[in-house]
Design brief:
The chain is built from 9 helices and 6 strands, in the order E-H-H-H-H-H-E-H-E-H-E-H-E-E-H. It is α/β, with parallel strands linked by helices. Strand 2, helix 6 and strand 3 form a beta-alpha-beta unit. Helix 1 crosses helix 4. It binds 6-O-phosphono-alpha-D-glucopyranose and magnesium ion (MG). Magnesium ion binds next to loops. This is Beta-phosphoglucomutase. Belongs to the HAD-like hydrolase superfamily. CbbY/CbbZ/Gph/YieH family. Pfam families: HAD_2 (PF13419).
Length: 217
């Protein structure tokens, strides 16, 4: 049966995860507290709204709805300014090789990201047109670890969930893949992503033979 692949964006295709962290950290600092890299792991894969709720919770802050909306806008503007000028050279090492392999072998792939900035980011990386489907933060109502984003991607690819492979760098995303009944490949630290079916530090550690194995029967 036909297999398909679903890629998370931030921290998998491009190293925007550090810019999300810096922008959230600035927001916290402006409110008078700090967030750690360890806390940031819990924000990876999590929607903008839920991230801000979590951060305010850590800082013990409660704010009005207006202030909340304002902070979301400020954070996104800060984030966008940090990633402006991104181009093809910002694709994480090894990613291009895997996309090329999938394209050449007619294995369809989709994006499955919580980000509302995903489409413009894929365009600036010059890989937007290569995706068979794109599912991002504008298309889902339930955030990871809910499997919705990956299930919609599987529908759009017209490939059964159990035949989909997910690449994820976040704890929430690996859990979402599991709940969607998909094979999960963790990209990052082994101690963080231990629930994943396979874990690699980054795409340069993945042999094409491995990709071949997981996308064929
Ligand atoms: C991804 C990232 C999160 C980010 C979320 C929303 O899941 O891992 O760090 O907060 O997307 O992104 P957005 O670009 O819509 O603020
Ligand atoms: Mg991610």
């Amino acid at each position: 049966e036909q297999r398909g692949v679903i890629f998370d964006l931030d921290g998998v295709i491009v190293d925007t995860a550090k810019f999300h962290f810096l922008a959230w950290r600035k927001l916290a600092n402006d409110l008078g507290f700090d967030i750690t890299l360890e806390q940031n792991e819990q924000l990876k894969g999590v929607s903008r709204i839920h991230s801000l709720e979590q951060i305010l919770n850590w800082g013990g802050k409660s704010i009005s709805k207006e202030e909340f909306d304002r902070l979301m806008i400020t954070k996104n503007e800060d984030y966008l300014s940090r990633i402006s000028g991104m181009s093809e050279k910002d694709l994480l090492p090894g990613v291009k090789k895997v996309l090329d392999y999938l394209t050449e072998n007619n294995i369809p792939y989709s994006l499955g990201s919580a980000s509302k900035n995903a489409r413009p980011i894929l365009k600036s990386l010059n890989i937007y047109d290569r995706f068979e489907a794109i599912v991002d933060g504008n298309d889902v109502s339930k955030a990871k670890p809910d499997p919705e984003v990956f299930l919609i991607a599987s529908e759009k690819l017209k490939i059964k969930p159990e035949n989909c492979v997910v690449f994820e760098d976040s704890v929430a995303g690996v859990e979402a893949a599991k709940r969607a009944n998909m094979l999960s490949i963790g990209i990052g630290q082994e101690d963080v992503l231990r629930e994943a079916d396979h874990i690699f530090a980054d795409f340069t550690q993945i042999e094409l033979e491995f990709i071949e194995k997981i996308v064929t029967n």
